[in-house]
Specification:
Structural class: alpha/beta
Distance between the termini: 31 Å
Radius of gyration: 21 Å
CATH topology of the largest domain: Rossmann fold
Strand order of the largest sheet: 3-2-1-4-5-6-7-8
CATH superfamily of the largest domain: NAD(P)-binding Rossmann-like Domain
Order of helices and strands: EHEHEHEHEHEEHEHHHHHH
Length: 261
């Protein structure tokens, strides 16, 4: 499978393109507007087309990177050109594997929930295997999405939780980073400096969790001196039950994901 195609040329498709540009013999991208395919052609030097069927005819792997509300129409459009040896990868939020398989039949399908930090190669993607996909299909999908960040494999029944934690999660972290920066500004330091301090601290802390092998609970203990500054801040977080607020944030997001799905 050395030929890959993208149906849809938005930001996420372009992020993946950047990651895999040198990994495939042929890459072809379709989009709805001439301006979009011209921009992609200029930036990536790949084949482009306005025809979704041309992508399917010329690719072994087809990544569906369109808006969820038009995905069903796209599936009906490309169905006549699909063969069972092709792999469909959908990154459309809220559209189940069953929905795709009901339209396409016994075609290998993998659903992926990526997130926007893929744009800076720090993405988090979850891979869900369809009924007709095999381990080689999973291996290929892993390779594609590891080019833009980290990957996990999951049963699709957990996709709404994954959506809340990593799909919507960046917005929650942006909020926290910004609020910490604004607190520093209110106390007298300029906002740009506070934002850099807050964002880099969040980045470093995340890397400590990912790379140190130490639990978050122990990392908190490691940086907290009894009776010191960090202990005082931790007390405010606990007294205001921030853990309950964060649980409710994820819970409500999961509930909304279920409704939209």
């Amino acid at each position: 499978m050395n030929k890959i195609g993208f149906i849809g040329g938005g930001k996420m498709a372009c992020a993946i393109l950047k990651g895999i540009i040198n990994s495939f013999d042929k890459i072809i991208v379709s989009a709805k507007s001439q301006a979009t395919i011209q921009k992609i052609s200029d930036e990536f030097k790949v084949d482009v087309t306005l025809s979704n069927s041309e992508v399917v005819k010329n690719a072994d792997i087809i990544i569906l990177a369109v808006k969820p509300f038009i995905l069903r129409d796209v599936l009906e459009e490309i169905k006549p050109f699909l063969k069972k040896n092709k792999l469909i990868i959908s990154i459309a939020a809220g559209v189940s594997i069953k929905t795709i398989e009901d339209i396409l039949g016994q075609i290998p399908v993998i659903r992926v929930m990526p997130n926007t930090p893929s744009l800076v190669n720090e993405g988090m993607s979850a891979i869900c295997k369809g009924n007709f996909a095999d381990e080689e299909n999973v291996k290929i999908t892993n390779k594609i999405f590891k080019s833009v960040g980290e990957v996990i494999e999951s049963d699709e029944k957990y996709i709404d939780i994954i959506t809340a934690i990593s799909g919507s999660g960046p917005a929650f972290y942006y909020y926290i980073i910004n609020e910490i920066a604004k607190a520093g500004e209110k106390l007298g330091l300029n906002y740009e400096t506070c934002l850099k301090l807050s964002a880099q601290t969040a980045l470093g802390s995340a890397k400590m969790v990912m790379k140190s092998g130490v639990t978050p609970e122990q990392l908190i203990i490691n940086v907290t001196t009894p009776g010191g500054c960090t202990a005082e801040g931790n007390k405010v977080l606990k007294d205001n039950n921030v853990s309950k607020i964060l649980y409710e944030t994820i819970e409500k997001t999961v509930q909304k994901a279920k409704v939209l799905g």
